[in-house]
Amino acid sequence: MATGKINVSVENIFPLIKKFLYSDHEIFLRELVSNATDATLKLKHLTSIGEAKVEYGNPMIEVKIDKEAKKLHILDQGLGMTAEEVEKYINQVAFSGAEEFLEKYKDSAKDSGIIGHFGLGFYSAFMVAEKVEIITKSHKNEPAAHWICDGSPEFTLETHSKTERGTEIILHIAEDSVEFLEETKIRELLTKYNKFMPVPIKFGTKKEALPKPEDAGEDYKTEYIDVDNIINNPNPAWTKQPNDLSEEDYKNFYRELYPMQFDEPLFNIHLNVDYPFNLTGILYFPKLDSNLQIQKDKIQLYQNQVFVTDNVEGIVPEFLMMLKGVVDSPDIPLNVSRSYLQADGNVKKISNYITRKVSDKLKSLFNENREDFEKKWNDIKIVLEYGMLSEPKFYEKAGDFVLYPTTDDKYYTLTELKEDLKDNQTDKNGKLVVLYASNKETQHSYIAEANAKGYKVLVLDSPIVSHLIQKLEADNENITFVRVDADHIDKLIQKEDEAISKLSDEEKEKLKLAIEAVIPKENYTVQMEALDSNASPFIITQPEFMRRMKEMSATGGGGMFGMGNLPDMYNLVVNTNSEFATSILNSNEDAQKELVKQALDIAKLSQGLLKGEELTAFVKRSFDTLK
After folding, report:
1. Are 40 and 156 in a shared domain?
2. Residue 491 dihedral angles phi and psi, to the nearest 5°
3. Of 105, 147, 98, nearest to 336 (Cα)?
4. How is 240-308 classified by DSSP, letter by letter?
5. Are the C-beta atoms of residues 126 and 17 closer than 8 Å to each other?
6. Helices (H) and strands (E) in the chain, counts
7. pLDDT value at position 624?
8. Which of 33, 109, 510, 601 has the most neighbouring CB atoms within 10 Å?
9. Separation of alpha carbons 223 and 211, rounded Å
10. What tens digit of pLDDT does each residue of 478-489 get?
């Protein structure tokens, strides 16, 4: 029997591991199962190139709980270790087994799928164990080794009677970690971290029904046998070639990832690149509503099929974090706990690649079946609009497939829109005016007036639309976006000089004073306008600039400082050519107040601004006039 001290650069590594090196104690199981997988895949590679003169067979990893003895076992049938290798890879923490292995076999091992390394990953076991044993038999013809350490730098290393190839790790669970002796807890961790490991993982057994014999009678009772309970899928969809997968395969994998998600994904994007970095994965566009809540933790990050984190910030572009799916790359640099990303050039390249791949997929979907793409537009638009604002490389490509729907359910790209509107919606100054509504119902009367003049009105109803149109205006010369209720339609797209008012300047001033005496001055500015005599007498509008700045301020950035806190301001446009304006002028003071109040309430009602007590009073007053 040999004894000695573990060769580390601090007097006692274990308190350091427990307190600082790992942020989450539960990942010990991921590390140990990952090491077992490493050992199995290394053996597979060595047998394939003739270095290991053994049968690879159909190895599996097994996790067992001995609750009574307070022990947790992790067993593999991989390449195992000699006593010398235990001394080197376990006791001399400064060495990394996988790094040396990869260096020796770097040419032939390039595509062998080797995951990680021995070394510090193994020592995560001491986060939950007061004593750890390793019983290991190498694939080489040498005696098995038995290593024991109780959480101090001292260890013992002796021979063991084990005859089967592979390694068994035995954790003597500490009193403060007995939760890891519960079957439900271990199953939860294996499912979370090892669900798609490339080697089968056994955890207990399960009952499986035997086939019913052909000659069985009506009184036959189904018979069951115990079979290995394999908790993982070693060959998940993202590890396969896109040509080998059907649409149903992609949908089935989505259900496997999100068993509690009942909506089908709209479409998927299969990531598959091996140069200048390795990256595989599948991203799904789920159905989204029009809100800006980024639903994080929906994309899972793996490193060669080992779950790392569901926080993919920095790897997946921010606008795509509303998607779901899997990204897997051995080239993403991780610290020893595999939990936090270190920013470097590879990560940025990966992010750029994903952006390009998503752009290309969207363009092909648009070109191949535009009608279907249009049907899905409302479910995906928030992602694409956010991408245009946040990712310059995506914005460059977005013009090919981003759509702008109209109130009559027609869809245009920006290029198509400019071409279609230029003849009818260019004002007298040569500027193309794009009208839009944020709500077809509440702005219906304004949309109807615009349509009556042959104008098209877009429906732009996402919370970031103010930011988006600000960017589009900056990047497209002689184009302006104006919400359809920002002014009277004749003012929004001015074709001629101002119409002549029927009222004299003196009469207009008198009318203005009569109206201002009734309306709340802190919210409304009265504007006297000479409009068509058939136009509404009172129209409430909200100035485009002020409203847009408030919206941009409310959704973050872009607006003037503090504008989001300002009260809503409206213009009350009074049509001086309407008969109603003349009626007000010709009425006594009391009648003027009643007329103005009723007309203002009607105008507010058309904008959805009449609510609560005011609405109740308006309804009662209106019924009273019918008596």
Report:
1. yes
2. -85, -30
3. 98
4. S-GGG--HHHHHHHHHHH-TT--SPPSEEEEEEE-SSS-EEEEEEE----S------S-EEEEETTEEE
5. yes
6. 19, 22
7. 81
8. 33
9. 8
10. 999 999 988 888
| Identity of the residue numbered 258 | Y
Q: What is the pairing mode between strands 432-437 and 479-483?
A: parallel
Does 439 reside within a domain? yes
Q: How much is the mean pLDDT over the chain?
A: 84
How is residue 260 written in tokens? 């509690």
DSSP letter for 498, please. Answer: P
Q: Is the dihedral of CA 200, 204, 209, 213 positive or negative?
A: positive
Residue type, 231: I
Q: Residue 581: which domain range?
A: 501-627
Does residue 164 lie within any of the structural domains?
yes
Q: Is the dihedral of CA 459, 462, 466, 472 positive or negative?
A: negative
CB neighbours of 406 closer than 8 A, spacing ≥ 6? 412, 456, 457, 458, 459
Q: What is the CATH number of the domain that holds 440?
A: 3.40.50.11260
Token code pair at residue 318: 């921010």
What burial class does residue 345 get, using C-beta atoms within 10 Å of its C-beta: 0-12 exposed, 13-18 middle, 19+ buried?
exposed
pTM of the model: 0.74
Tokens of 373: 């793409």
Of 84, 170, 175, the C-alpha closest to 133 is 170
Is residue 220 situated within a structural domain? no
Structure token digits, residue 499: 């119409």
324/46 Cα distance (integer angstroms) = 37
pLDDT single digits (tens) 584-602: 888 898 888 889 898 889 8
Q: Nearest Cα to 112, choosing from 169, 192, 32, 52? A: 52
Give the pLDDT confidence of 255-282 residue by residue, as tens digits.
999 888 778 899 999 998 887 788 899 9
Say which residues have a Cβ less than 8 Å from residue 74's Cβ, sequence separation at least 6: 29, 32, 33, 36, 61, 62, 63, 168, 169, 171
Does residue 330 have a cis bond before it (omega within 30 degrees)?
Answer: no
Classify residue 300 by burial, with Cβ atoms within 10 Å: 0-12, 13-18, 19+: buried
What value does the CA radius of gyration of the chain take, rounded to a whole number of Å? 35
Letter for the amino acid at 543? P
Measured CA to CA, the distance from residue 499 to residue 491 in angstroms comes to: 11
> What local confidence, expressed as pLDDT, does residue 337 receive?
38
Which residue matches tokens 């190895």?
A: 59
> In this structure, what CATH number is given to the domain that contains residue 255?
3.30.230.80
The predicted-structure confidence for 95-143, as pLDDT tens digits, reads as follows 344 445 445 545 544 444 333 333 457 888 888 999 999 999 999 989 9
**C-alpha–C-alpha distance, residues 332 and 476, integer Å:** 38
Same domain, 15 and 79: yes
Considering only residues 18 and 249, tell me which one the structure prediction assigns the higher pLDDT. 249
Q: Give the span between the Cα atoms of 175 and 489, in whole angstroms.
A: 76
- Tracing tokens 């005599």 back to the chain, one arrives at 533
> Is it the case that residue 146 has pLDDT exceeding 90?
yes
Strand partners of residue 270 = 282
Rounded Cα gap, residues 572 and 602, in angstroms = 12
Tell which phi-psi region holds residue 304, choosing left (phi > 0), alpha (psi between -120 and 50) or beta.
left
Produce one character per residue of 132-155: b if its CB has 16 or more CB atoms within 10 Å, e if not: bbbbbbbbeeeebbbbbbebebeb
- Which residues are registered as beta bridge partners of 58? none
213 located within any domain: no
